[in-house]
Amino acid sequence: MQNKIFKFSIILFSSLALLSSYKSFQSSGYQIYMMWDFNNNKFNTPYEIYATKLDPDYPNITLTALPMSFIKARYFYNSDSLEIAKKLLFKAIEENPFIKAPEAMLANIYYDEGDYELALKYSKNAFKALPNNNYHRNIYFKTLSHYNDSIELENSFKIIKNYNNASHWFDYIIYQYKVLKRADENLLEVLEEFKTKYPNEENIENLERYVKFGSLNFTISSVLVSDAEREFENKNYQKALEIFMLADKLIDNPIIDLNIALSYDNLEDYNNAFAYYDRIINNQLIKSGKPEFHRGLLSIKLNNRNEGCEYLKIASDKNFVDSKSGLIAANVYYQLCKMN
Amino acid sequence: MNYSIYDSVIQNGNVLLRGNQFRGFTGNINISSFAIAIKIPLVIYLYLKTNMKVFKFLLLTLIFSAFITICLLMSRGAFLITLFLVCLIPLMLTLKKEFKFLKAYFVIPILFIGSFYTQQLLVKENTPDQMLERFSTITDSRKDESVNERLIFYRSALQSIKETPILGVGIGNWKLISIELGKEMVSGYRIPYFTHNDYLQITAEIGLIGGILFTYFILFPLFFSLRKFFKSNDNLLYLTLTLIFIVYGFDSLINFPLDRPVNVIYFLFTITLLYYSTKETNNAK
């Protein structure tokens, strides 16, 4: 009798273990797609999988500890099924109360719905628990900026500023600027600190212009530059020049100055082209070597070979490569100045 | 692995950086390194036991290849434990006066030193100081992120054990609890899934009693085979088993082999071998 009970127990536990393993295995298969979507901010997994085939209750968290219901809720949020998404997110909070991803998503939903009080409640909860998270920080700062709470913004930024994440600085400066509607001394100090800490950050100069010249001027000039570049591409250099000039009046941007120089260059107004090139070069406003490259080519074109070669050498030393034409400054310098 | 490194560095002129492209069939290069290190004692055992010269030569080649792989993958833990094994074996053989084996063994340390210099030769054009750099920061947690992370994990685990010493946080729950305990180092949703110390993680998850039993499960075979080594006639087999348990025990101290089948299966097979060899020895008596 004892032997039979023992055998029965073994079979029972083995079957349960097998069932558990099978369910985990099946879930892992679906998780591959859904986690790929999550990591790449995509929504490619078919409805059939996330809505019907996937069992979010066993296992109820992913291999990376995110609640299954949260992963599922992403798709419903994306397709505007907000009530289903919210229901899933409340369940997700119970499944893993520590990760705070469901709270952050709930905050986003409430923010979109205009329920700022709940947005603040959930975003604060997510940010305070896991501050070094772009998603948590963004929705919390966004909500704080809605409430014009510059003090809490500043205090929250102090918590995250020492993490090695430039996005924290970008978000803080943008949202604090939105609240203050101007760049005060503190914000300019933060901006300077940001520039010192992340000297190679790509968009830092644009952020500086955004803060210094105002969001309206920055946005209008961005649109104008984009239009002017299109005209330039279509070889309407006169039109391009006019639009670049308009943008130049709104904000001080050496890239716009360079585009003006290039437009003059193409319009064969060489005196003005030289004036703009020289202003950029003498003040070292662009360090890539692009102004020296075009200045050098223009000088050679006008038969001033020695001067042209000097500029091309500088561009070559700066390893300049023209992304549009693919021309390498070093090769151009070698062919035009070293050969013959 | 050696070929893929040769192909990348020598053939294609790439800089040798520690990366998962050389991980082989495992999850990362640390697991690969320890999976190789744990097998070295068995190959040395075969080398010392066999009388066939061709077989001896092939085994030496295999040992050399294993040493080079460990050096090239630059896993500090695996390198240190291999160095420890290389030094410990002659000591143990001397203690048991196994001079025949000791004589045959002298070539192994030469191979180890040779593999280290081969690694230096392979990377001299690009990253010659990488190995030394990695060792220079091993005791400085401020400079070494990997050491710093591990210290935070250990502290979190100890804190968790202190809070729930009897029952623990529940099996499999470490990856949930660790989020709160290590929140200052969580970036995005990348959380500390493992403590990088199986003893601490198991204790944190199932309490002190469970932790002690788990430690016993790892250490008992180690001490048992060590005892057998000193008491039985088949010294070399028990020495090999002891060394394998040492590698696994050390791996558990700084990594999480319990979660890696490639290591656990080998460990379980070794326990089985210990069990059967003990049974055989008892039967022979």
The whole-number mean of residue pLDDT values of chain A reads: 92
The CATH class of the largest domain in chain A is identified as: Mainly Alpha
- What profile does the largest beta sheet of chain A have? none
Radius of gyration of chain A: 29 Å
- What kind of oligomer do you see? heterodimer
Overall structural class of chain B, as computed from helix and strand content, comes to: mainly alpha
Radius of gyration of chain B: 21 Å
One letter per element, helices H and strands E, the order of chain B comes to HHHHHHHHHHHHH
- Number of structural units classed as domains of chain A: 4
What is the terminal-to-terminal distance of chain A?
104 Å
What's this model, at a glance?
The complex is a heterodimer of chains A (340) and B (285). In chain A, 36% of the residues are buried.
Write the layout of secondary structure elements.
The complex is a heterodimer of chains A (340) and B (285).
Chain A: H1 2-39, H2 47-53, H3 68-78, H4 82-95, H5 101-113, H6 116-129, H7 134-146, H8 150-160, H9 166-180, H10 185-197, H11 204-213, H12 215-233, H13 237-250, H14 254-266, H15 270-282, H16 290-301, H17 305-317, H18 329-338
Helix pairs in contact in A: 3-4, 4-5, 5-6, 5-7, 6-7, 7-9, 8-9, 9-10, 9-11, 11-12, 12-13, 13-14, 14-15, 15-16, 16-17, 17-18
Chain B: H1 2-11, H2 29-37, H3 40-49, H4 53-73, H5 76-95, H6 99-105, H7 107-123, H8 130-136, H9 145-163, H10 174-181, H11 198-231, H12 235-254, H13 261-284
Helix pairs in contact in B: 2-4, 2-5, 3-4, 3-12, 4-7, 5-12, 9-11, 11-12, 12-13
Question: What does this protein look like?
Answer:
The complex is a heterodimer of chains A (340) and B (285). Chain A is mostly helical. Chain A folds into four domains: 1-73, no CATH class; 100-212, Alpha Horseshoe (Serine Threonine Protein Phosphatase 5, Tetratricopeptide repeat), CATH 1.25.40.10; 214-280, Serine Threonine Protein Phosphatase 5, Tetratricopeptide repeat; 287-340, no CATH class. Chain A contains 18 helices and no strands. The longest helix of chain A has 38 residues, at 2-39. The radius of gyration of chain A is 29 Å and the shape is elongated. The relative contact order of chain A is 0.04. The mean pLDDT of chain A is 92. Chain B has 285 residues and is mainly alpha-helical. Chain B has two domains: 1-136, no CATH class; 140-285, no CATH class. Chain B is built from 13 helices and no strands. In chain B, helix 11 runs antiparallel to helix 12. Chain B starts with a helix and ends with a helix. The model of chain B has no long low-confidence stretch (mean pLDDT 87). Chain A binds chain B through residues 61, 64-66, 96, 98-99, 101, 129-135, 163, 165, and chain B through 175-177, 179-180, 183-184, 186-189, 191, 193.
